[in-house]
Amino acid sequence: MPENDILLEVKNLKMWFPITQGIIFQRHIGDIKAVDGLNFSVRRGETLGLVGESGCGKTTTGRAILQLYRPTEGDVYFEGQNLCKLKGEPLRRMRRKMQMIFQDPYASLNPRMTVGDIVSEPLEVHHILKGKALRERVMDLLEVVGLNRYFVNRYPHEFSGGQRQRIGVARALAVQPDFIVCDEPISALDVSIQAQIINLLEELQAEFHLTYLFIAHDLSVVKHISDRVAVMYLGKIVELPTRAKLYENPLHPYTQALLSAVPIPDPVVEEKRQRIILPGDVPSPANPPKGCNFHPRCPVKIAGTCDVDEPEFIDVGGEHWVACHRVK
After folding, report:
1. CA 255 to CA 157: how far, in whole Å?
2. DSSP β-ladder status, 321-322 and 47-51
C-alpha cells in the first residue's frame, strides 16, 4: 500500500472505560476494554467495512478515531497528523475533514431545530458561509441527498426515518469532508429504504471522492458497499481481507461462523450448507479471556496454545490479515 495513498492509519488503538467502586471515595477496580489494540489503515477513496456482533466495539472505534472519545492509548494518523496529540483549535480545524453519520436518525437530529438549522450548523461553527449563501448551500445539500430544497423550514418530526437519515447525510456533507464514519446508518430503517440509502452513499462517494468507514451488522450489505472488510470480536480485529477474499476464503473461525449465518437466495445451496453454531456467549470486555479472545467459543481451538498465547495479527498474503494460531 503506497504511503501517499493512505488517508487514515490507526496504530494500537485502545479505548478502555474505567470501572470504579464506592460513592464518595471511588476506587479504580478495573476497565471495560471496549477497543483493545487495533491496527489498520484506510486508503483514500475506499470503503472499509467494520463488522461484528453487538457490543464488540465497532461504534467505539469510530468515535475514538474521530476523537469524540479520547483514546486511552494508541495513535490515529489522518493525512499524516496524529489526532490523538491535537487539542483545541488545531483539532477543531481537523474535524472539518471528518464527519459521522449516526445510527439512529430519530435521536441524532435536534427536534427543536429546523432542517435548515441542522444542516447549516456545521457551516456556521466552522465559519464557512453566512447569510444568503449559507441558505442557498443548505438547499443545494438537501437536493443532493434527494430531498426537496424547500424542506428547510420543517422540523425532524415531520419526516420518515429514511428522510431523517438523508438529513443526517446532508449535515455530514455540509463541510465537504474527506472521511465519513457511517455508524450503522441503515440498521434503524425499513428494508425497503435501506437499499436507497446505500445507493445514495455510493453515489455521493463517487461524486465527492469520499472515504468511508462503514460500520454494520449485515454482512450482505457490507459485501455490497465495501472494498475491504475488518471483522471485529471483543475489542480486536480478527480478520481483515479484501471483500472478495472474505466471502471466498474466510480464514478465521469466527468469520466462518458469521458467514454461515448469512442466508443465500438459492434453496439448493442453502440446503447443503452447514451452519456453524457457536457455543456460549460473548465474554465480558471487563474480563476478556487469556490468550485468544475467541478461544472459549472456538470449535477448532488448540489446547495449551489458544488459551495461553494471544495470536499475532499477520498478513498471510495478498493483503489478507488474520489473527489465528491455526493460520500460518
Report:
1. 39
2. unpaired
For residue 155, count CB atoms less than 10 angstroms from its CB and return exposed for 0-12, middle for 13-18, buried for 19 or more: middle
Residue type, 327: V
d(CA 86, CA 247): 39
Query: Residue 20 pairs with which residues in a beta bridge?
Result: 28
CB 197 within 8 A of CB 207: no
Superfamily of domain 3-97+177-322: P-loop containing nucleotide triphosphate hydrolases (3.40.50.300)
Containing H/E element for 228?
strand 228-233
Distance CA(28)–CA(22), nearest Å, equals 9
**Locate cell 450482505: which residue?**
220
pLDDT digit string, tens, across residues 7-51: 999 999 999 999 988 888 888 888 999 999 999 999 999 999 999
Neighbour count for residue 18 (Cβ, 10 Å):
11
Give the cell for residue 235: 475489542
Can you tell me the mean pLDDT for 123-128? 89
What would the grid cell of residue 40 be?
489498520
Q: What is the pTM of this model?
A: 0.90
Contact 260, 273 (CB under 8 A): yes
Residue 214, Cβ density class (10 Å: 0-12 exposed, 13-18 middle, ≥19 buried): buried
pLDDT, average across residues 39-68: 93
Q: Is 318 exposed, middle or buried (0-12, 13-18, 19+ CB in 10 A)?
A: exposed
Residue type present at position 61: T
pLDDT for position 153? 93
Residue 321 identity (one-letter amino acid): W
Residue 268: burial class (beta carbons within 10 Å; 0-12, 13-18, 19+) = exposed
Strand 228-233 relative to strand 6-21, pairing: unpaired
State how far the alpha carbon of 224 is from the alpha carbons of 136, 159, 202, in Å: 34, 27, 10
Q: What are the tens digits of pLDDT across the range 134-192?
A: 999 999 999 999 999 989 999 999 999 899 999 999 999 999 999 999 999 988 788 88
Domain locations in the chain as residue ranges: 3-97+177-322, 109-176
